[in-house]
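Running log. JK asked me to keep both predictions on one page so they can be read side by side. First protein, sequence followed by its tokens:
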Amino acid sequence: MHDILARLPAHFDLHPVTSASEVSGGLSNALYRVETSAGAYAVKIMGINADSHDFQDNIENAFAVEQAAFTAGVPCPEPVPTSQGTCLAAVAGKLVRVHHWVEGVTPAITPESGRWAGELLAKIHSIEGHVDLTLDDDPSDESGGPASRTPRD
């Protein structure tokens, strides 16, 4: 992890890292809260399926949707592009992506929170000039049967 933190600023135009702590709750990737003199960031070190043939394209397509949503004012963490304008960077042998850190809470499941989630989803899907990209999230393998893989992100 130290190698990744030391090299992170060069890939994402960030200030040097002053501290980092692992955040629990990730499904398939390692997530860290990283502090710099310019603010806090969520740093995700990609794990499960990161070496599959379509992984990088899927994540880059999702990044384009995130950027469009953030730009349109949809409340979401601001994605941080690499120095080349992409989402993923190979840092110390691992694929890494970054967002500005946003404190969050797990809402209670109520009709109001369900309505809020539906409204949020509608905002994302109604973005002017939205991005039409296909994300490969088909839960079946090439033979048509259920895949034995873990969710990507």
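And the second, directly underneath as requested:
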Amino acid sequence: MLRLWGRTSSINVRKVLWTLQELGLPFERIDAGLAYGHNHTPAYLAKNPNALVPLLEEGDFTLWESNAIVRYLAASHAMGTLYPEDLRQRFDAERWMDWQQTTLNRAGGPAFIQWIRTPAEQRQPAVIAQSVAATEPLLQMLDAHLAKRPWMAGEHFTMADIPIGCEVHRWWGLPQPRPALPNLASWYTAVQARPATRGVLDLPLS
């Protein structure tokens, strides 16, 4: 049985949880990280020296880094669907997954921390404003990309849609205005309609 370590408040754990549910795989999830602890114990560090969540265990095999876990699960159980067989489509999907981690997440993360995990009296409006200024052009880029295709990597839902979907869920859950992005909004409506997003994209931010 697959075992997933990580709290559902983590965007990175949510990616893996959604993927497992898309694939219909049986798994056990154990809360870990922040208030739940576990991630700094010797036993956990032996499996994940990065001391973060998520961590996936499959027998004696362990894997950490959320997008790597999503790729592994998709390649193992959904070759040709979640994990494209065509190399150009596959690396298109890979590219968007990397962009989510290296660019979109870094831009939007500070506003999330300020709004959701920082007490109101300690919030720094300048940090939020800087994060908004960095993130909105990226969302406009996504909107333009999705004007030409229904899903991130083309005509079909793939692993690329999962990290981007988690990121958009987090950003749109912040108590702040956002510009009209009709193509991104239509895509996100289609994402939310997928049964596998239950218990992932319908959770409040925390």
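Observation for JK regarding the second prediction: The mean pLDDT is 97.
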